[in-house]
Specification:
Elements lengths: L3 E6 L6 H12 L7 E6 L5 H7 L6 E2 L18 H6 L4 E4 L2 H6 L4 H13 L3 E6 L3 H5 L3 H13 L10 E5 L13 H18 L2 H4 L4 E4 L4 H8 L6 E4 L6 H9 L2
Parallel strand pairs: 1-2, 1-8, 2-3, 4-5, 5-6, 6-7, 7-8
Helix pairs in contact: 5-7, 10-11
The structure holds phosphoenolpyruvate.
The site of phosphoenolpyruvate has 13 residues, from strand 8.
Length: 249
């Protein structure tokens, strides 16, 4: 059985009080035990979040991290630092980090390696631009985005990987991929894992969809065979909307 997951990426939003209030509201809901709920507050609030959710089923994710444990890298945060405040889950490869901070397949390979060595669980994001899709290059592009950072890993390391297909043209734009487009890509991704590893591994990996998921479209997207949940940006900042999305899986 693949784990169903709904993860909220809060990006650079919410001050300290807003973060605590949203966490307290989420703590008051008892979600189905079949779904794993995760939240990724900004770095500055991770300690608060980890403390508030210490004995709770909601998991806390960092939105990024460096691949080294320490050194002269002004402004960066290391795996060791995250571990020291009780965080062992991280989002890597988000399109905003690829676009604004020049993350590449090779730098992500280093980050994935470091995350695995430090026993992190990773939500690895990838997705094509609209121009790639229009040229019919989206399948090749996704294949390359997975190949360098992930397809050299030992099968055992895949226990730590959750995939998140996030077409860049659907992130924060209000434009959602159709359920058919999502299923087609998720099935392609599972096929790649089968080709590079085996059926058992491919059938055990959770593949999330991200890109303008709202409560009005989540049920249909999550009901697709190869969709195991969602990575939710904007809608995860709105308590009742996020709860509706979680409850729709
Ligand atoms: C995201 O940033 O991962 C995301 C999916 O954002 P949104 O839901 O706002 O499109």
């Amino acid at each position: 059985m693949r784990q169903k997951i709904i993860a909220g990426n809060w990006k650079m939003n919410n001050d300290k009080e807003e973060t605590k209030s949203l966490i307290n509201s989420l703590k008051s809901i008892s979600f189905s035990k079949d779904v794993k709920v995760m939240i990724a507050p900004s770095y500055i609030h991770l300690s608060d979040a980890a403390e508030m959710l210490k004995d709770h089923k909601i998991d806390v994710l960092a939105q990024n991290m460096h691949f080294l444990n320490n050194g002269a890298y002004t402004g960066e945060i290391s795996p060791q630092m995250l571990k020291s405040i009780g965080i062992s889950k991280v989002i890597l490869g988000h399109s905003e980090r690829r676009i604004y901070y020049n993350e590449t397949e090779n730098s992500l390979k280093q980050k994935i390696k470091a995350a695995i060595e430090s026993n992190f669980e990773i939500i690895f994001c990838f997705g094509e631009q609209l121009s790639d899709r229009k040229k019919g290059k989206h399948f090749d592009l996704i294949k390359n985005q997975l190949k360098i950072p992930l397809f050299h890993l030992e099968s055992n390391s895949w226990k730590r990987i959750i995939l998140a297909y996030e077409p860049v043209w659907a992130i924060g734009t209000g434009e959602t991929a159709t359920p058919n487009q999502v299923q087609e890509m998720h099935s392609f991704i599972r096929g790649l894992i089968k080709q590079n590893y085996n059926d058992d591994l491919a059938n055990s990996i959770s593949i999330l969809y991200g890109g303008s998921v709202k409560s009005k479209n989540s049920k249909e997207i999550f009901s697709q065979d190869d969709v195991d949940g969602g990575l939710i940006g904007g809608a995860s900042l709105d308590f009742s909307e996020f709860v509706k999305i979680i409850e729709s899986i």
